[in-house]
Structure formats: structure tokens, C-alpha cells
Design a protein that fits this description.
The structure is a homodimer.
Chain A: H1 2-13, E1 17-21, H2 30-40, H3 44-62, E2 68-71, H4 73-77, H5 81-96, E3 100-107, H6 111-122, E4 125-127, E5 130-132, E6 139-142, H7 148-161, E7 164-170, H8 177-180, H9 189-200, E8 211-217, H10 222-231, E9 235-239, H11 249-252, E10 263-267, H12 269-272, H13 278-281, H14 289-307
Parallel strand pairs in A: 1-2, 1-10, 2-3, 3-6, 6-7, 7-8, 8-9, 9-10
Antiparallel strand pairs in A: 4-5
Helix pairs in contact in A: 2-3, 3-5, 3-14, 6-7
Chain lengths: 308, 308
């Protein structure tokens, strides 16, 4: 079970942190930008290559200290085909370095279409009897609005290829409550989705006691997260919203179980753009941006371990 | 307003049909498959090129008779970067032929990420002062589970570049009710989402009386669609589920207004794989698969016009 591997890596690194690989041109040091512009012109291709270069250096610096990375596909998809290539190469590189990869794709569609997303991202694509592994994330994120038959097509590949999902339950954005907090008469929509996700995950529970079908639960809603943690004892949480979005270590402690497991906390710009923060700026030259990311990872680790 | 252009095209063609460009290798005639395998090997690239070739011939045959096409990005995304290239080339080709393009992408994410999807798909991507148009669909589909702040980033580009959205309200799949039909005390979740979508669309109402912010309402749920049509008089419906998914023209007549406008009905495999259906198989050689698609479009047009 992939969830057991993730938990093993969290124990090894003593760090329930996932680094969000959500590059933006404004984060990329000028020497990388210039080199890529020189080679590819001022084009989306140059940006895609700059992202990959940037990601590789970040991965090299932080991979000994973290269990997982979470590339956000939107940053790459925005650039077109060359961006998707950069996304795929980033996944491959992170996996070579022993990291678990959570593809933040938030897909959701009717069953026959979900099969295509599933085969491309976490399964196999067959061409005239040959098979190809295209994206190969270890986990992907999924949107539940269309119901069980839109999620079920991922389960076959999760079983067959030891992959996992994180289904959106209670997201970190300020407006998440507009639908998710609606009252269904005694419980909210996100609580209802939470109980569906824990049912769906029952046949994916590993030796760790957690399921490879996890839930996205934002760090920015501690009271809700606390209820969900109690309600879903076998569901692992992917927790976005720490740092830039306002979630604090104190708030998200409720996402963890008594052994300090049960969740992995994402930080994106707080780590990958650390070299631009006053805190780290003085320590390193722009060329050493990845060292600033490493320091930010270690600071986040201490911050989390102080609270959980 | 893009919605007015769509309605103009519907009036011109007298046909509220959108052809779903959701190619699968099993639909592609063997002469195309073989030529692509010969050129590119038995690879995802060959499939991507076969899809584009197939789409082009379909577009050539049907474009005089329909207002719009709806490529489903999953079919292309599954193949990796080469698939996204095929998706982009398909959009470009359809627009060259005067068709409106609805990108069926069903994205949904926090605001800062939604901006990236929005800029890539319906806006501009800026690279060192130069701008690029990457996907350039006219409309895209969007998932509302994360609430207003996950949808709002698309509005800026809709305004600036005359683009539109179709937000998932009541989807066509059998399990759509699992969340969407939940009772919020007097109204269902999909009705609630419906009223949000009509509010969001208020400042995008064109001369036609319809908004460029539309709704996805499945053909497979006529009773619900009827209520939504009454509840959302200014919201244009994108109606999936006709044909292969079981929706009949009689059922979806309720999606239209008294002038026979207000909705566009999608058919994918019923049209693009018509050459494999008993009904059309006898008429044409495999090489003329696109003529079968044209016949299927005209049959669907008659079927719809009989009921609306």
C-alpha cells in the first residue's frame, strides 16, 4: 500500500511535510531565467524549462529531509504541452530521488472520462498492445462533486499499481464553506463527503492502519479538521493552507493522531520561494536559493514538531 | 459577449448541437492508425497525431452544420505532452473553421491556482513582457465544489477576452445525485449551486438575454432540468448525456426556452463513432467515417428539432 510507504518516509524523516512544487516565474532566480531565455527565447518553453531546473535544485536540497512533494499541475498546464513535459520530468526526478509524489490535479468527471485521467496519471496507457506510464504520480487529488461513479474508476489503478488518492473534503480556501459547510440537517456537506471518503477507503487500509484513499482537509479550518479527524480515524489527511494561506502549526495539530501521524502538511511558496523572504534572504546568495528552501523545510519541521 | 456569438451560430445552423471531440483509439479507422504508427511508432505520440487527424476530418465534415465542438481534455491529457499538443491543435483547427470551442476541463482550485488555469485556458500567459495565447477555448467547464473564490479568477478573463464558463450544476452521470441531490432543507445542493451560478452570471448577460456564465445540466435528469430552467431564466445550459448516456430528445426539451433557445446539447461517441454504428455502417466505407458523423449530426438535429 502506498500509504504505508508514505508513512514510512514520514517516520524516517521525522517530518510530515510535503513541499508544494508550484513554481512561478516571480520565484525563479534571474540566472535561471536568463539562461533559459537565452536557450529558448522569451517563450513558454523557456518558462517550462526554468521550472524544471528550479524544481531539480529544490528537490536536490530538500529530498533528504522530506517524505514527499506535491506539484500543482495548473502551473505547468498553463504553459501548454511544454509545461506538461516539465510536470512529467519533475515527477520523474522527484521519484528518482526517493520522494513520494502527490499530483495536485483535482480532476473529476464521468466514469468513462475518469478512466482516461486514471490511466494517464496513475495507471497504464495501452497503444497497440504496448503499455506506457505517462505521469506516474503516487497519489493524485480528486474532486468528489460528481459522486461515487466519478471516483470509482481510480480505484482499479490504485489496487493494481499501488497508488492512492486524496479526495477534496474541506479545502483551505476562504470561500470553501460556500458549498462545503452547507447544512444537510444535522451534518454539513463536508462531513458527509468525509464519511463517503472513509467508506470508499475501507478496502485500501494498509498495515499502518491508514487508507490509501485519503482526504484533503485545510489547515485554515481547525475546528472542522478536529471533527473530521475524530470522524475518520483511518483516513490520512493532506493538509494545505499552512504558511502563506494563514494556517498555523497550532491550528493543524488537530489533524494528527496521538502518535503524531495521520496527516501530511503542504507548504509551497513558504519553502520554494524562501530565498525571497526577509528571514532567509540575508543568509544566501540568489544562486543558493535551494539552500534557503532547505532551511525553510527544517524550520517548518521544527514548527510542526513543536505542536504535534 | 461570447454567449451571443454562440446563440447566433445556433440560429444560423438551426442546430443546438455541440459535437464532443472525445476520441478514443477504438473509434479511429485503421488507415489512420496505421499511417500514424508507421510515422511515429506504436507510441502515445502516434495516438495524439491520430486523434488530431481524426478530429480534423470530423470538423471538416460537420462544421457547416453545427455551432460548436467540445473537446474533452482527459482524452488528450492522458497521452502526456503530445496529447496536450493535439488538444491545442484541435482547438485551433475548430476555430479556424468558425466553430465555437467549449473546453471540457472541469477544473476547480484555490484562487491563486485558478488564475493559472484561467490565464492558460482563456486568458494570456505573460513571459518577460511578451504574451502568449495557449489553449484559447471560447468556453471552459468549471467545478464549483470549492466555492466562489475558486470561480471568480475566471471572470476577469471572461470580461477581458470575451470568454465564457459552464459551471457544473447537475451532471449527467448516474451517480450525480450522491452529492448534488442532497437536501439542504427545502432545496437540493444542485438547486443551490444553480442559484449561485445565475447570480455569478448577472454581469455577463448579453443582448440575447443569456449570460456567458452557463451551467452544465445533464440530459439524463429531465425533472431536475425542468426546475432549473424555470429557476435560471438567464443561464444557458450545456447539456451532456444525450445518446450514449441514455438522454433522449423528449427528455431534454425542458432545457430549452419557448424560442427553442437556452441550451446546447452534446453528443460525443454518437457522432464521432457513428461509422461504427449499425445505422450508418452500411452507407460508407471506413475511409468516409466523417461522412457518417455528418449524417449523425443531421439526424441529431432532426431529432432535437422534433422535440423543441
Amino acid at each position: 500500500m502506498i500509504i504505508d510507504r508514505l508513512i514510512e518516509k514520514i517516520k524516517e524523516t521525522e517530518n510530515p511535510t510535503v513541499v508544494g512544487l508550484d513554481p512561478r516565474m516571480s520565484f525563479i532566480p534571474s540566472f535561471i531565467q536568463e539562461a533559459c531565455f537565452e536557450q529558448y527565447g522569451k517563450t513558454p518553453k523557456a518558462v517550462a524549462e526554468a521550472f524544471y531546473w528550479f524544481n531539480k535544485e529544490i528537490i536536490d536540497a530538500v529530498s533528504p529531509f522530506i517524505p514527499a512533494v506535491k506539484p500543482q499541475v495548473a502551473m505547468y498546464e498553463m504553459l501548454g504541452a511544454c509545461g506538461m513535459e516539465s510536470y512529467i520530468k519533475t515527477i520523474e526526478y522527484a521519484e528518482e530521488k526517493g520522494l513520494i509524489v502527490i499530483g495536485d490535479i483535482k480532476r473529476g468527471d464521468i466514469a468513462s472520462t475518469a478512466e482516461n485521467y486514471s490511466d494517464g496519471h496513475i495507471g497504464r496507457v495501452f497503444v497497440a498492445g504496448h503499455h506506457f506510464e505517462i505521469y506516474q504520480e503516487d497519489f493524485i487529488t480528486i474532486n468528489p462533486y460528481m459522486g461515487y461513479d466519478s471516483v470509482e474508476p481510480y480505484f482499479k489503478n490504485c489496487k493494481e499499481y499501488a497508488k492512492g488518492l486524496f479526495v477534496l473534503v474541506k479545502t483551505s480556501n476562504p470561500g470553501s464553506g460556500q458549498l462545503q459547510d452547507l447544512d444537510l440537517g444535522g451534518k454539513t456537506l463536508y462531513e458527509h463527503v468525509g464519511s463517503l471518503v472513509s467508506q470508499w477507503g475501507e478496502s485500501f487500509i494498509g498495515q499502518s492502519g491508514y487508507s490509501s484513499i485519503g482526504a484533503v482537509v485545510g489547515a485554515t479550518h481547525p475546528a472542522q479538521a478536529k471533527k473530521l479527524r475524530e470522524q475518520m480515524p483511518h483516513t490520512f489527511f493532506l493538509v494545505p493552507g499552512y504558511g502563506a494561506q494563514g494556517g498555523k502549526a497550532e491550528d493543524l495539530a488537530v489533524c494528527f493522531d496521538k502518535d503524531g501521524l495521520g496527516a501530511i502538511v503542504n507548504s509551497s511558496r513558504g519553502i520554494i520561494a524562501a530565498h525571497q523572504k526577509a528571514e532567509y534572504k540575508g543568509r544566501y546568495d540568489e544562486k543558493d536559493f535551494a539552500q534557503a528552501a532547505k532551511d525553510a523545510v527544517l524550520d517548518m519541521k521544527s514548527d510542526l514538531r513543536r505542536c504535534i
